[in-house]
Amino acid sequence: MTPASLFDLFAPRRLARAAAAFAMGFTVSQSQFEAMGSGLAELRERGVLVCGVDTGLAGFAEQDAEGRWRGFEIDLCHAYAAAFLGDADRVRFVPLTSAERLPALEEGRVDILLRSTSWTFTRAARMKVTFAGTYYYDGQGFLAPADLGVASARELDGARICVQAATTTVLNLTDFAETYGINITPVLAETPLAAREAFEAGRCDVVTADVSALAGLRRALAEPDAHVILPDVISKEPLGPVVAARDPRFAEAARWVLHALITAEEYGVTAANARELRDTARSPVVRRLLGAEGAMGEGLGLDADFALNAITARGHYGELFARHLGAQSPLRLERGLNAQWNEGGLLYAPPFR
What we know:
CATH topology of the largest domain: D-Maltodextrin-Binding Protein, domain 2
Shape: globular
Helix content: 40-55%
Distance between the termini: 41 Å
Order of helices and strands: HHHEEEHEHEHEEEEHEHEHEEEHHHHH
CATH class of the largest domain: Alpha Beta
């Protein structure tokens, strides 16, 4: 059964819930009534948010020895569950390869994709998906053994380069080689782990991937200090949450949950102080963000506390970054482009007004 036919099948059930709400005397706004016909209502009825994640990418999504998921994108999923369902733990993670990720979303096997997926023209124009913002600004680079003796990717003529299949990374590599007249041999790998194993086994000379992924790969090598990330960054890779295009309201809700985490960092609203600030903050922006005035979420079918719940789930954007990618993590990545707009970065949320 197609997602569209499923939508039609459940339409009478949605109308029945709405009618029951009226019959029982509940006050239901027009926006909340409309939300009952959205994917958000179906999600609440199911009670679990299904997030498509990476099969294993250091700092972003990986399982520990006990099988528990950890990472920046994992905590984002918890934040979304808190915003949509009021409970950060009502989540299920579905690991997906690069080839599987977008079809899984289109087919309705996951609710939201939080899996290092770059926002590109072709994906936005030709696939039935919607990109709901950018949570990490990345770029493609190269990891090489220090003793290879190269200072730039332009010196890789004749190299065998491990690259993950079914990604924009392959296309970027081809464009780069053609632009600079470099002869390279791509060695395709299905997952980041497979690329690392091929590199360690000597089946390729260099690995190319997003710079953040290369930092994690380098950390996992037996001799990290014997390898260098070359200075070349050959692409722009805006990574963001992706949802199915069939529900624009759900996409907008996903967009504003991310904006809430970004705004919270800008205004100093943390997991620890958010509930107190809801009652004591003098800033109108903070009061609107936390649901103390204005009921901002209602227009998207969200509770007034949606942002408060998202922030207290795992922290604001900066807290997530520091824990998994930045100063508190083994990767120790600089904020760089992912710093707030008023600190020299690109991180920017529209006004909560």
